[in-house]
Amino acid sequence: MRITALSGGIGGARFLRGLLPLLGPGDQVSVIGNTADDIELFGLTICPDLDTLMYTLGGGIDEQRGWGRAEETWHAKAELAAYGAHPQWFGLGDRDLATHVIRTQMLRAGFSLSDVTAALCTRWDPGVRLLPMSDDRVETHVVVASDDGSRRAIHFQEYWVRLHAEVPVLDVVVVGAAEAAPAPGVLAALADADLVLLPPSNPVVSIGTILAVPGIAAAIRTTPAPVVGISPIIAGAAVSGMADQLLAGLDIEGTAAGVALHYGARSAGGILDGWLVHTSDAPDVERLAQQGIRAQAVPLLMSDLPAASAMAQAALRLSGRVPA
Ligand code: FO1
Q1: Is the pTM of this model over 0.85?
Q2: Separation of 287 CA from ligand 1 center, angstroms?
Q3: Domain count of the chain?
Q4: What is the CA(174)–ligand 1 centre distance, in A?
Q5: Which residues have C-beta within 8 Å of that of residue 265, sequence separation ≥ 6?
Q6: Residues spanned by the domain of 282
């Protein structure tokens, strides 16, 4: 079975880590990773979601943070701060830096982000084909209100890491998306899939940014594969991260059903066939059925690997596709 998943960082990576043990030798997984979180710092190109997927599935992730490397040290960060280098709010660990150095070196040599990602994955062997959503530069900027009432756009990482998503969101702009092309293999991974999954990633800055790349949403709408998503919202709150604030800022209903309806039923021109909601959101199942989305209420708290596998199992069952 060929499974293709769209994914951001921590939530999507942990879900996929639960999916892989359910699969057999005849199954293969392609992951289309969000690159709109990417940021250039100290001359280095950093791809947080691709790295979180690669480290989580490759066994190098720091489990407590959910991002960056295990057994990390922060000497380079301290040295940069000692020089007064900015920004100092983004944590670049010593082990993690090697990934950014290799990536930047290869990009400067003319390799595409897809080539770089494949090269880095030969070390980490994540067990999936990890595809950037695009090889072109796409960057999420969040429009926030300034103290003097004016609006300003800041990089998503500044909004999230420096401001802890504590300022009201007026808009989210995915800079460069309209001019970007899907990376090689992305559209085929969707058209040729036996199953397309939307893990519980952030619907605005992870899944939404992937869908903003021209051609990708259409490929999901037209794939013969069933499309099944997992709600990142439980009882009206994001399990982690800042989805609540972003959904509110964009006037999208911040509930399990609200996110599903934002994606839309495929029968109504959207991208979803099925949607898993947490048991506490069981009332949403009927509401979604009336809108053409087949929903099911199962436990969605991804507290550990078995919980993630149970969620993945429920998604496979809901899709009607069981592994070989
Ligand atoms: N998240 C933080 O909250 N603080 C950080 O200092 C930080 C550094 C960082 C470095 C590399 C990397 O790959 C991810 C990093 N993240 C950090 C997480 C990152 O902001 C998020 O994982 C994604 O951008 C959102 O999913």
Answers
A1: yes
A2: 36
A3: 1
A4: 18
A5: 272, 273, 291, 292, 293
A6: 2-135+178-319
